[in-house]
Design a protein that fits this description.
It is built from 19 helices and 26 strands. The chain has 739 residues and is α/β, with parallel strands linked by helices. Strands 11-16-15-14-12-13 form a 6-stranded mixed β-sheet, with helices on both faces. It has a 5-stranded parallel β-sheet with strand order 4-3-2-1-10, covered by helices on one side. Bound molecules: beta-D-glucopyranose.
Length: 739
């Protein structure tokens, strides 16, 4: 142990020494060059780019994925520039490279850090084989608004789940050592508050009180910083009146002074030059100043640093020592990545892209991401033996590209396996499959095809509908105000539900859609998110019972869009709603008086509960929770308690349950959420089997930022629940006492 620490110290020292040796030789222009990231790719004039690289004006390129070009440009940097500093080659490798894993929100439904880690590992190996050494992931913006298109790219609504899974993703990308072949630098983005954009409109303003910011939105970033994420990216958003890219509070006070983060921060795409569009600055020079002074180290795509830092230094507004600090962090990463020793990439050093092993991992991830939302009369799994004909209908049944989801620049749709293909492969020849796409896109409004679908349904024993949203409807800049199933899909479901046949709906989408208008029309509802390359086989295996579904919702499903934002970790308010206190709009008497009912926090037309709560998901088996207890009811600050529950598989098949532990701090210096996730475990049990599941909770896990913005654990009473979703009622209590 000791010698390991010593070795690490030596390594750190040698990185620092090497950085200083370079820094003393650098001109100011070369230093500023190390703070500049430019676009690569086919639209860029290669001669101009090479000239700039040779002149030491470029530190990093994004979006160049042609390996020969990458190697050639690295050669210019290493052999033609004065100091031979190699390039960082960046790309948005978000949920896979060529082999696409489920969208991050889907991966989050697995509640499985190993799934997330292996997805990132495969992505890193594939991307590294193309010379990429830096990805812009994970996106760890806590996301509580499904209208926001980028919720697809998030790990959901919960800060703890996002922290655990975000760190797993960092681990997968960065590996044991950044210098290893196949390790690429990760980037925690978007710092900070981006996910809280008003009305779920991408890039919109965010207003988040500091206490909420620290207790919710910053938590995954703090965790990423502690986990050693190589870089951070600033957010596009205006946070409390100051665009995040110009926020000294975020980048200097919190990130550097409080968290002692020693990686570097890249701006988002032109987010420095956009400071003047926000109305914070009058011109690019002021923008460069604001961003540099706030703590942004590298500028993505715009050139305000290159154009104006020399003058800002000359004017004495920015110190040379500030520039040196930024350059140090960039050079340190290049050294840690081993780029000085190995600047070039030989794809032969890597396994074949999309090899069977990677595809298998993508399939396991897709399997674990599937969430069974409804299963009336055990309509699922389907037994092929008594079904002689299946109607497979819908625009997402055989859509190799659309099932991949957002951010799939390098995803290969030719290797995508669709649900239709997988079902055809899985079932025997004596079952007839009637397939109809029915709608050109999920947005189509052509009534004719509904009657064709009805005819097909009549001829079939069971109807499986593949619906949802195609890729383009979620992701960056793709927010929606109405998150019902688009186009004629609702009408299609309603028409099929009248046929008296079992109707199974499989939804492939980039966000939780509002489903209350169709949930009663289907017998079973399987949520597949955008499941990636191997989505088809994963879905088929669950539909036909080769696997039991095990995913749980990483985000609340609202009944209607007007409930947004709706999330489980809400505050109690002074007038919390209960089932008894809610009155529906249809039940209100004529001339009822204002105070005659209600007077609690709910909507007259939607109540106070969501359609599906956070952490919810069914299985083909059934789990029972009992004997919840804690090993001590009184916990002194600085210690841990052990909470245990007996979990029994009381159903008829082997299945996996995601056991979740929640707490509530009953009284706080600032009000605390009604429930907070503090632990989760995936437990697989055979039918009839039971086990005891335990969690250790330390008083540090109960800490929160108080009114003085101090991270404290307060003495007092707590509730603790363990169960299969955030609505679990199995509860015990404990108190925290001062030492
Ligand atoms: C996005 C970032 C992304 C960057 C580079 C921006 O528009 O907000 O998340 O990493 O582009 O592609």
């Amino acid at each position: 142990m000791k010698s390991n620490t010593k070795r690490k110290r030596l390594l750190v020292d040698s990185v620092a020494d090497r950085v200083e040796q370079l820094l003393v030789q650098m001109t100011m222009s070369e230093k500023i060059g190390q703070l500049s990231q430019l676009q690569g790719g086919s639209g860029v004039d290669q001669d101009i780019l090479k000239e700039a690289i040779a002149a030491g004006q470029v530190s990093s390129l994004l979006n160049e994925v042609d390996l020969d070009t990458v190697n050639e440009l690295q050669r210019v940097a290493v052999e033609k520039s004065r100091l031979g500093i190699p390039l960082l080659i960046a790309r948005d490798v978000i949920h896979g490279f060529e082999t696409v894993f489920p969208i991050p929100l889907g991966q989050a439904a697995s509640f499985n850090p190993e799934v997330v880690k292996s997805g990132a590992r495969v992505a890193a190996l594939e991307a590294a084989s193309k010379g990429i050494n830096w990805t812009f992931a994970p996106m760890i913006d806590v996301s509580r608004d499904p209208r926001w298109g980028r919720i697809a790219e998030s790990l959901g609504e919960d800060p703890y789940l996002t922290s655990v899974l975000g760190n797993a993703m960092i681990d997968g990308f960065q590996g044991d050592d950044l210098a290893d072949a196949g390790s690429i630098a990760a980037c925690a983005k978007h710092f900070a508050g981006y996910g809280a954009s008003e009305a779920g409109i991408d890039y919109n303003t965010t207003n988040i009180p500091e206490n909420e910011l620290r207790n919710v939105h910053l938590r995954p970033f703090k965790a990423a910083s502690e986990a050693g994420v190589a870089t951070f990216m600033s957010s596009f958003g205006d946070l409390n009146g100051v665009p995040a890219t110009a926020s000294k509070f975020l980048h200097t006070q919190v990130l550097r002074d409080e968290w002692h983060y020693d990686g570097f921060v890249v701006s988002d795409w032109e987010s420095i030059s956009q400071l003047s569009i926000h109305g914070l600055t009058a011109n690019d020079k002021e923008s460069a100043y604001e961003a540099a002074a706030a703590g942004i180290d590298m500028e993505m795509t715009s050139t305000t640093y290159r154009d104006h830092l020399p003058d800002l230094i000359e004017d004495g507004l920015i110190n040379e020592s500030e520039i040196d600090g930024k350059v140090r962090a960039v050079l340190a990463l290049k050294i840690k990545l081993g780029l000085f020793e190995n600047p070039y990439t030989d794809s032969k050093d890597y396994e074949q892209i999309s090899n069977p092993e990677y595809m298998q991992e993508a399939k396991s991830a897709a399997l674990e991401s599937l969430v069974l939302l409804k299963n009336e009369n055990q309509s699922l799994p389907l037994s092929v033996s008594d079904k002689k004909s299946l109607a497979i209908i819908g625009p997402m049944a055989d859509a190799p590209y659309e099932q991949l989801g957002t951010w799939i620049f390098d995803g290969e749709q030719k290797i995508s396996q669709t649900p239709l293909q997988a079902i055809e492969h899985l079932i025997t020849d004596d079952v007839d499959i009637h397939y109809l796409k029915a709608m050109d896109t999920t947005r189509s409004r052509d009534d004719g095809s509904i009657s064709q679908a009805v005819e097909l349904g009549k001829k079939s024993d069971v109807i499986i509908l593949f619906l949802g949203e195609e890729s383009i409807l979620s992701g960056e800049a793709h927010s929606r105000a109405d998150i019902d199933l688009p186009g004629n899909q609702v009408e299609l479901i309603k028409a099929m539900s009248k046929l008296g046949k079992p109707v199974i709906a499989v939804i492939l989408a980039g966000r939780p859609l509002t489903l209350s208008n169709i949930v009663d029309d289907v017998d079973a509802l399987l949520y597949a998110w955008h499941p990636g390359t191997m989505g088809g086989p994963a879905i088929a295996e669950v539909l036909f019972g080769l696997e039991s579904p095990s995913g749980k919702t990483p985000v609340t499903f609202p009944k209607v869009v007007g409930q947004i934002p709706i999330y489980y970790g809400k505050k109690n308010t002074g007038k919390p709603a209960t089932d008894e206190s809610c009155v529906h709009i249809d039940e209100i008497d004529a001339k009822a008086e204002q105070t005659s009912f209600g007077m609690t926090a709910f909507h007259l037309d939607a109540g106070y509960k969501p359609l599906f709560e956070f952490g919810y998901g069914l299985s083909y088996s059934e789990f029972n929770y009992s004997d919840l207890h804690v090993n001590t009811n009184s916990l002194t600050i600085g210690n841990s308690l052990r909470a245990s529950v007996k979990l029994s598989n009381i159903g008829s098949c082997r299945a996996t349950e995601i056991v979740q532990l929640y707490v509530r701090d009953l009284v706080g210096n600032v009000t605390r959420p009604v429930k907070e996730l503090k632990g989760f475990k995936r437990i697989t049990l055979d039918a009839g089997e039971s086990t005891v599941v335990s969690f250790d909770i330390h008083t540090d896990d109960l800490a929160f930022y108080n009114r003085e913005m101090k991270l404290v654990t307060e003495a007092g009473d707590f509730h603790l629940w363990i169960g299969g979703s955030s609505a679990t009622e199995l509860r015990t209590e404990f108190s925290v006492t001062k030492p």
